[in-house]
Amino acid sequence: MKYAIATIFIASSACSMSASAIIRCEIDGRPINTSNGAELAGKSGLVRCLEEDTGHLQREQELRDGRFIGLERMFDRQGRLLRERTVNERGNSQGRVAEFWPNGQVRREETADNGRTQGAVRRFDATGRLERVSFHGEGQELFYVEYNSKGQPMRLLCPRASVLPEDRKLCGFDGAADTELFAESGARSAQLRYDQGRLLSATEWSSDGVVAAQQSVVDGRHVHQSFYTEGGKSVLREERVFAPDERTLRDARGQLLSARRFGASGQLIEQRSFGTDGREAQVERWYLNGSVRERSIWSGNGKDARLVREMYRDDGKLARREQFDADQRPVGTQQAFHDNGRLAVEEQYADPDARGRSRITARKQWDDAGKLLADDIILEDGSRKRASP
């Protein structure tokens, strides 16, 4: 009696060699070549494939009228169950899909709908301890919680509506709740406050136990703060405020209303505000000594938008005053000042032409005593026509 033979190659990581194993398949005790459609045609039953040398079972597949539909089990070289699922007429997973550890414990289990994960997914370690549970729906992962080796939650994503018993307490579906998250070591890494699946506030700690970030809802607005460590203490580095919307609190893709940055001593060094169109409307910056460094204000909209920017020295005296159009090209009057505050240079720019080019049309220059040194008209070819000595 001849057997149909399929050969597979299994790499050995220990010696970087490959060895071949002869796999023989049978149905109802009779040999069958699973690669030959003619042999499969019209047959039904359970196909079992074993390694010839060891006799270990390698796979089991349910055959229905010549097609592999139904139960499918895959085994390792030692004949231990690795994976079990049900296959539909399209060859995709349908129903429960399970993976196993060598000791027989379930490693991962889920429910599939035509190959697509749907519903709960649970992952376990080799002892049977739950490592992760999640829920899939609407084509995406709606909920998950991951646990460390101590059984403490490490990572959490809450759904808008309860989907599993595991989300009830953690996500505040039984009432507003403070949920703590932990690192693998057991150290506290975050505290989240949820109410009916909506995140109200969050505090994150660095590995050395100081506050690294905070998010909160203030008058409906989402406030994000980030910190750095200075002398073992947490120092505010940046604060961003987002307009109220339906995004989750941690989502930083919303409409930004304002942003502030702080120096090492906690002093404000930059403040930006934004218009309803999301464009930057005003910028203020300061030196670490507290003196103003820059003030920039946008006015108008669209192509008519104009930016006026003032730059200051660290003693608080104005150094430059500039104007730009919506594309950051110089327009109108540009001025530079001496250290004593007197006007040093004044330039006039024409509005951009049809090709978007902006050119200087006039330039004046004074010394620090206020004496006019030059008064030039700038011609189209760049040459100067002096109006006064």
Coarse morphology: elongated
Summed over residues and divided by their number, the pLDDT gives a mean of 91
Summarize the amount of helix as a percent range: under 10%
Radius of gyration: 35 Å
Beta-sheet strand percentage? over 45%
Give the distance, in angstroms, between the N- and C-terminal Cα atoms: 115 Å
Low-confidence runs of at least 5 consecutive residues:
1-18
Main pleated-sheet profile? 17 strands, antiparallel
- The total strand number stands at 30
Number of helical segments with 4 or more residues: 2
What structural class do the secondary elements suggest?
A: mainly beta
Summarize the structure.
The chain is mainly beta and 389 residues long. It is 2% helix and 58% strand. The strands form two sheets. The protein has a 17-stranded antiparallel β-sheet, with no helix packed on it. Strands 1, 2, 3, 4, 5, 6, 7, 8, 9, 10, 11, 12 and 13 form a 13-stranded antiparallel β-sheet that branches.
Structure description:
The chain is mostly beta strands. The protein has a domain at about 1-80. Helices cover about 0% and strands about 60% of the residues. It has two helices and 30 strands. The chain has helices spanning about 35-40, 165-170; strands at about 5-10, 15-25, 30, 45-50, 55-65, 65-75, 80-85, 95-100, 105-115, 115-125, 130-135, 140-145, 155, 175-180, 190-195, 200-205, 210-220, 220-230, 235-240, 255-260, 270-275, 280-285, 290-300, 305-310, 320-325, 330-335, 345-350, 360-365, 370-380, 385-389. It has a 17-stranded antiparallel β-sheet, with no helix packed on it. Strands 1, 2, 3, 4, 5, 6, 7, 8, 9, 10, 11, 12 and 13 form a 13-stranded antiparallel β-sheet that branches. β8 (about 95-100) and β9 (about 105-115) form a beta hairpin. Mean pLDDT is about 90; it is low at about 1-20.
